[in-house]
Amino acid sequence: MFSPSNAAPLRLNDRLELIADYPFRRLAALLKDPPGGEPIQLSIGEPQHPAPPLLAEILAREAAGWSRYPPMIGTPEFRRAVADWLANRYELPPGWLDPDTQIVPLAGTREGLYEIAQVTLGARQGEPPPLALLPNPFYQVYSGAVWFAGGEPIFVDPAPDDLPDFAALPDHLLARAKLAYLCSPANPQGAVASLERLKGALALARRHGFTLALDECYTEIYLDTAPPGGLEAAAALGAG
Hints:
Elements lengths: L22 H8 L22 H9 L14 H15 L18 H12 L10 E5 L4 H9 L3 E5 L14 H6 E7 L11 H14 L2 E5 L14 H8 L3
Helix pairs in contact: 4-5, 7-8
């Protein structure tokens, strides 16, 4: 923002000062001018291969609809298609997902990861800030979302399986936790949470009353065995 030359700079929000440098930028500085061929850029999830021809065909076929914004909640047909895909992918019980109340279309996963902190943390004046449990290393939007929601991030180092062990935290921290982020398959370490690991994390969240946000944006990148997911764990545990 502009301010008079003799005045202190104006800031939109002091919480901007809490956000650290993106870890991938620091990594890029360490890997500057690597030997060998052109490196593959993994820092921003940019596709490195040509798009499948199927995408170009569908975009061309539906070009007449580009002049209209899609509804914020998506179309009923889209939400039903998403629910059906999830039910098939994770072998969920019939009718277990309601496409009208449990499917939220997003422009990208970052949008949802940010918004979940705004919904769940809800800092109150005069009270200690609510805690959010983050894996370490972590995706930058986790911490940014927590700071802007008025919460305090707790960075949890990986256990021997390269995933954060939230259950190892002391009870006084778990009692203040309102949100936990868990990424599986994890970036950057590539660790995959087993179904039992996911069930344990969900059971812990239920026991202490915090929301478990599972970041599963890499779940369809695999060679032989499809990674398990949070919906699979929730269906196995039942209502809670």
